[in-house]
Automatic annotation (TrEMBL):
One of its GO terms (cellular component) is ciliary basal body. One of its GO terms (molecular function) is tubulin binding. It comes from the Eukaryota. Residues 19-101, 130-150, 671-722 are annotated as: Disordered. Keywords: ATP-binding, Ligase, Nucleotide-binding. The lineage of its organism: Eukaryota, Metazoa, Chordata, Craniata, Vertebrata. GO terms for biological process: microtubule cytoskeleton organization. Residues 689-704 have a biased composition (Low complexity). Residues 83-99 have a biased composition (Polar residues). It comes from Cyprinus carpio. Residues 64-79, 130-141 have a biased composition (Basic and acidic residues). The keyword Glycoprotein does not apply. This is Tubulin tyrosine ligase-like family, member 11.
C-alpha cells in the first residue's frame, strides 16, 4: 500500500479522534467545522480520501522521507509549514512533519505525533502554549507558531540598514520591493504619501507631520501655547516669523538696546524648510538679515540665541532624543531611554562680532561638524564628537548633578511639545483619512534636538520629522573617494529605537494593548524616572527589554490641563463639513456661531462674517503656499481667542478661552442630548451667580490685540451676505 494512502489513513484517524473527543465533551462537530490542513495534502489527496473506505486502523510503518524535506505537491516544491525547531540543550532535534488539524471557531490545534511503534498520538495545543497529549509524551514542548509580521521596506531610504537589522532580530518578514497583498507595516523614508495606495496596515508617518515641524509652523504652534501657558512653555526661545514680523522684530530689538545700551543680544536665523544646519547663521542686528532676490527676506524664524550652554570638554553640544508618537487618539508618547550627544568641534566662546561666523563653535549639527578637521569618529560611546546621552548623564552624575531631575524636565518638554502639535495633526489626519474611509493607522519616530543650559534647564531647538537613522558614516579613503564605515554609537541607539518601535507596533501587541489599556494615566503627581523597564510585558523573552519608555498617557494627570487647543480643534473639525478639507468656509463659520449661540444684539451674524473675512484674508497672506481657500485651524484659534476676550473681559486669556469652550461644548452637547441639559462648570468663578453674570456678558470690549499680530478691526461698512 502506498505511503500516500497511509498518510490519508492517518488523517482520517485524527479526524475521528477529534469527533470522539468532541462527543465526550458534549460538543457536536459537523464535518464542515473541522478543517484539515496537513503539510502534504492536495486536491488529489482529498479525491482519494472520498474514494477510500478506511477503517481507522493505523499501520506501524516509519516515514521513508527525512524530516524537513521539501515534497513535490502538484508539481511545486513546497516546504513543510509545520516544521518546528527545538531548543533542547542536547542539540538540534528533528523537525516534525506531522499533519495538523484546526477546529474552526476555536483556538484548538490538533497535531499528530508518530510514536516509536508507528502509531499516531494526537495532542491538543491551546492558545496559552500548553500541550495536552492524548498518548505518549514526547518530552519536549512544541513552540507556538505565529504568523510572521510583514514589513514593506521599499520606501525606507536612509533608514534601510537599521530597519533590516531590526527585522532580522525580530524574525519578521521583509518585502524590500513591496508586495501585491497588504503588509502589516509600511516603512516610509520621507512622508505618509510615499505610497498613496495603502488602505490597511500601519504606516510609520503621520499625514502633515513634515508640514507641522517646519520651523515656522512649529513656532506658531508653541507660541499659541505660550499665550495660554507662558510658564509651562518657557523652554522654547522667543521667536519671530519672517518676513511678516520683520517690523515687530526690528522695533523690539531697537527698544531693547535703547533701554540698556550695554546689552548685546545675539539671534539665530533658521530657514523655514532648512535641514542639517543648511542656511543657519547668527546676527546681532536686524540689518544683518540676509535677503533673496527682489530685496525680500526669505521665510525663516529668528530666535534668541542661547549664550550660556552647558559645556563638556569646553565644547558646546546638543542632545538628539528619539520620540515615538504611537497614536494621536488616544495620544500615546514614548521616549527612547538612550539618545545621542553631538558636539561642536571648536571650543566655545560667547558670541562676538568676530566669531559669529564660526559654525563649528556655535552650531551642533552633525552634518556641519563632520566636515571639520577636528571631528573625531570613535568606537567608544563616551568619547569622540558623537557620544551616547547616557555617557553624558554619567559624567554629570559624577559631579553631583541630579540626573533624574534632568530627565524629568526633558520628559515634560517632550510631552508639552507633542501636545502643542496634536491639534493641527488631527486636522491633517482627518483630511487624508476621513472617518469611514479605509486607511492605515499611523505612528512616527521624531527627533527632538534639545540644548542644556548652564543651569541644566532643557531648551527645545527643533523637532525633526525625519531624523537620520543611518548607522554608518562616510570615510574619505583618498581625495574625493569615500566609503561607508559602521558607526557603533549610531547602531547601538538607532537599531534599538527602530526594533522596539516595531515591537510596539506589532499587530498582536497592539491588539493586546488596546484591550488592556484604559488610558487612565498615572495617579502620580510628579514625573518619576524609573530605573527598571515597565514595558516588558508581552515582549519576546529572547530580546532585550524595551528601550522606549511610555510617558503619555502615563503622566496624563500632570499634563491633561494643557490640552485646551485640542478642544478648540475638535470644534473646528466638527464644523468642517466636507470630508478631506482642512479649511472652514464662511457658511460653516456662521453655523459655528449660530449653533454655539455666540451671536446676540451686540455681535450679529454680520459681525461674524466680518470677523471671518478679516482673519481669513490676513492668514491667506501669511500662508502663500496654501492652495485651499477658507479659514485654517490657526486662524480659527485666533478668532476663538478674540471671541473669548470679548465675552469674558478682565480675565487672563486662558480663563477666557476655557470659559468660552464650556459655553460652546455645552451648547453643542445640548443639541445632541436636548433631553439632558448640561450644567455649566466654571474653573474661574466659585460663586455660581458670578459665573452666570460673566457668561451673560456681551461683546462690548474693544478688538483683541494679540502679541505678534496687528489689532483686528471690524469694518461696519463691510458688505456681507447671509
Amino acid at each position: 500500500m502506498s505511503e500516500h494512502y497511509e498518510r490519508v489513513k492517518i488523517e482520517l484517524q485524527q479526524m475521528k479522534e477529534v469527533e470522539n473527543e468532541a462527543a465526550a465533551d458534549g460538543e457536536q462537530l459537523s464535518p464542515a467545522s473541522v478543517s484539515s490542513i496537513p503539510a502534504e495534502v492536495s486536491f488529489t489527496a482529498r479525491r482519494d480520501l472520498s474514494r477510500s473506505s478506511v477503517n481507522g486502523r493505523s499501520r506501524s510503518k516509519s516515514r521513508s522521507k527525512a524530516d524537513g524535506h521539501e515534497r513535490q505537491v502538484n508539481d511545486k516544491e513546497l516546504p513543510d509549514p509545520t516544521a518546528q525547531k527545538s531548543n533542547s540543550s542536547q542539540g538540534q532535534s528533528r523537525v516534525s512533519n506531522e499533519p495538523n488539524l484546526h477546529i474552526k471557531g476555536t483556538a484548538r490545534l490538533l497535531k499528530g505525533k508518530t510514536a516509536a511503534n508507528g502509531h499516531v498520538e494526537t495532542c491538543v495545543r491551546q492558545t496559552d502554549g500548553k500541550c495536552e497529549h492524548h498518548g505518549k509524551e514526547d518530552g519536549s514542548k512544541a513552540a507556538k507558531k505565529r504568523r510572521a509580521v510583514t514589513v514593506d521596506t521599499s520606501k525606507a531610504k536612509t533608514s534601510l540598514e537599521a530597519l533590516k537589522m531590526s527585522i532580522r532580530q525580530l524574525k519578521w518578514k521583509e518585502f524590500p520591493i513591496g508586495r501585491r497583498t497588504a503588509c502589516d507595516i509600511y516603512w516610509h523614508g520621507v512622508s505618509f504619501h510615499d505610497n498613496e495606495n495603502i488602505v490597511s496596515g500601519q504606516v510609520n508617518k503621520f499625514p502633515g507631520m513634515i508640514e507641522m515641524l517646519r520651523k515656522i509652523n512649529l513656532s506658531r504652534a508653541v507660541r499659541t501655547m505660550q499665550e495660554l501657558f507662558p510658564e509651562e512653555y518657557n523652554f522654547y526661545p522667543r521667536s519671530w516669523i519672517l518676513p511678516e514680523e520683520y517690523q515687530l522684530f526690528s522695533t523690539q530689538i531697537r527698544l531693547l538696546k535703547d533701554n540698556d545700551s550695554t546689552l548685546k543680544p545675539t539671534y539665530i536665523v533658521k530657514p523655514d524648510s532648512g535641514s542639517q544646519g543648511d542656511g543657519i547663521y547668527l546676527i546681532r542686528d536686524p540689518a544683518d538679515l540676509r535677503v533673496i532676490s527682489g530685496a525680500q527676506i526669505k521665510q525663516a524664524v529668528v530666535q534668541d540665541y542661547i549664550q550660556k550652554p552647558l559645556l563638556i570638554d569646553k565644547l558646546k553640544f546638543d542632545i538628539r532624543l528619539y520620540v515615538l508618537v504611537r497614536s494621536l487618539e488616544p495620544l500615546e508618547i514614548y521616549i527612547a531611554k538612550e539618545g545621542l550627544s553631538r558636539f561642536c568641534t571648536e571650543p566655545y566662546q560667547e558670541p562676538s562680532q568676530k566669531n559669529l561666523s564660526h559654525v563649528f563653535m556655535h552650531l551642533t549639527n552633525y552634518s556641519l561638524n563632520v566636515h571639520s578637521g577636528n571631528f573625531v569618529h570613535s568606537d567608544s560611546c563616551s568619547t569622540g564628537s558623537k557620544r551616547t546621552f547616557s555617557s553624558i548623564l554619567y559624567r554629570l552624575a559624577s559631579k553631583g548633578v541630579d540626573i533624574k531631575k534632568v530627565w524629568s524636565d526633558i520628559i515634560a518638554l517632550v510631552i508639552k511639545t507633542v501636545i502643542a502639535l496634536v491639534p493641527e495633526l488631527k486636522v491633517y489626519y482627518q483630511a487624508d483619512i476621513p472617518p469611514g474611509k479605509p486607511g492605515p493607522t499611523c505612528f512616527q519616530i521624531l527627533g527632538f534636538d534639545i540644548l542644556l543650559m548652564k543651569n541644566l534647564k532643557p531648551i527645545l531647538l527643533e523637532v525633526n520629522a525625519n531624523p537620520s537613522m543611518r548607522i554608518e558614516h562616510e570615510h574619505e579613503v583618498s581625495p574625493g573617494v569615500f566609503e561607508y564605515v559602521p558607526s557603533p554609537v549610531d547602531e547601538e541607539v538607532k537599531v534599538g529605537v527602530i526594533r522596539d518601535t516595531l515591537r510596539l507596533m506589532d499587530p498582536a501587541q497592539r491588539k493586546q494593548h488596546a484591550t488592556s489599556n484604559t488610558g487612565g494615566g498615572s495617579p502620580e503627581e510628579a514625573i518619576v524616572v524609573e530605573t527598571g523597564s515597565d514595558e516588558k510585558e508581552g515582549m519576546a523573552d529572547s530580546l532585550p527589554s524595551l528601550c522606549l519608555k511610555q510617558v503619555f498617557p502615563k503622566y496624563t494627570k500632570q499634563f491633561h490641563y494643557l490640552r485646551v487647543v485640542e478642544r478648540i480643534a475638535a470644534i473646528f473639525l466638527r464644523f468642517l463639513g466636507v470630508k478631506g478639507t482642512m479649511r472652514l468656509g464662511p457658511t460653516s463659520f456662521r453655523t459655528f456661531i449660530r449653533n454655539c449661540k455666540l451671536s446676540n444684539s451686540s455681535f450679529s451674524m454680520a459681525s461674524a462674517d466680518i470677523l471671518y473675512i478679516d482673519i481669513t484674508r490676513r492668514w491667506a497672506g501669511m500662508l502663500p503656499d496654501s492652495r485651499e481657500a477658507g479659514m485654517c485651524l490657526q486662524a480659527f484659534i485666533e478668532a476663538f481667542f478674540y471671541l473669548a476676550a470679548r465675552r469674558f473681559k478682565a480675565l487672563p486669556l486662558r480663563e477666557q478661552v476655557v470659559l468660552l469652550l464650556e459655553v460652546c461644548e455645552g451648547a453643542l452637547e445640548g443639541q445632541s442630548h436636548s433631553e439632558k441639559p448640561r450644567t455649566h462648570r466654571s474653573h474661574t468663578h466659585p460663586n455660581p451667580a458670578s459665573s452666570q453674570t460673566s457668561a451673560a456678558t456681551t461683546f462690548s470690549s474693544p478688538a483683541l490685540t494679540r502679541r505678534r499680530q496687528r489689532p483686528l478691526q471690524l469694518s461696519a461698512k463691510a458688505n456681507t451676505e447671509n
